[in-house]
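REVIEWER CHECKLIST
Item 1: Sequence provided? yes
Item 2: Single chain? yes
Item 3: Sequence as submitted:
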Amino acid sequence: MFETLKAQPADKILSLMAAYREDPRDTKVDLGVGVYKDEHGNTPVMRAVKEAERRIVADQSTKAYTGLAGDPAFADAMIDLVLGETVARDRIAAIATPGGTGAIRQALELIRIASPGATVWLSNPTWPNHPSIVKFLGMKMQEYRYFDEGTRGVDFDGMIADLGTVAEGDVVLLHGCCHNPTGANPTADQWDRIIATVKERGAVPLVDIAYQGFGDGLDQDAQATRKVAGAFDNVLIAASCSKNFGVYRERTGILMGIARDADEAKLTQANLNFLNRQNYSFPPDHGARVVTTILTDPELRADWEAELEETRNTMLALRQQLADELRQRSNDDRFDFIARHRGMFSRIGASPDEVEAMRRENGIYMVGDSRMNIAGLNAKTVPLLAQAIVDAGV
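Item 4: Structure as written out by the authors:
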């Protein structure tokens, strides 16, 4: 049987990680993997997470399954975090998933059941796993323009023009905040136009929100998602806790399905439960329980929010430092967009050859499309990156 298998394409980021590990240079810089790192290059466990885990270990009396949808308290806490009071709770179906990736997979599976002929529209560019999963499931896919390579901002006119061709019943995947891989985000007014256009076309939004709290703040980063949720009868929202709670390896995510009314929500919930049963039966609980413990305890939540804000401000400071270093070294303001971008990533517009030159000459590791993880930098490595960018002629 196995002799009939075909080799699968290598994951570019995982291949980059392997090359980085094998590089003997002390000055090498990893800007590929999407994890937050402190000034020492470590990905720390947040204080509130440590305390929540201590309490769970001390108090937990069973490891029995929680249920097909996961712990209801986790769903309630995450719905409150992402949506606030935007949508009535009885209109929302939700399942815990193995990370944000699991939420995206289950969302696409639900779409395939509900509307097999729907086309899924993705931003160009987008997170590579989006098109990979869509293709694997055999679903139809189209792209809408998103990034302006000249300004390094949102190609808003192109985006609206392409969304204006979406067919009724199609699904439009939108990044809720901190667009991956570009770091460029629509303004509030542009979001209003995006929502109006998608609604006019009769399409269904699928929002991927993986970085809430990494951009402009917890509530600010949720505003676009809340606008979308409040404007449509049907919305799918995939949320991840990997970044803002730092529980990457615990694979903690949630898929929310907003329905027209309570009866439709019950039907949606039953189908989501069915999908969980088919894919992994019961979702993992430890990370979800940690998140629930933090969000439902005022003291832990306050400490978590404070540390998350420190993380966000650190990334903003690194962005500004890099933009300033590049302005000084290049005697040009063309890199000022880096300070305007939000979240972990920015796409700087380097060619694959220039990216390779930075790796070869300076030990700078970033994805070939020049997406770099700002959170992989620190105050000492920013000047090294700035000089490498200038030397490569970006």
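Item 5: Key structural point noted by reviewer: The domain at 65-296 is CATH 3.40.640.10 (Aspartate Aminotransferase; domain 2).
Item 6: Recommendation: ____
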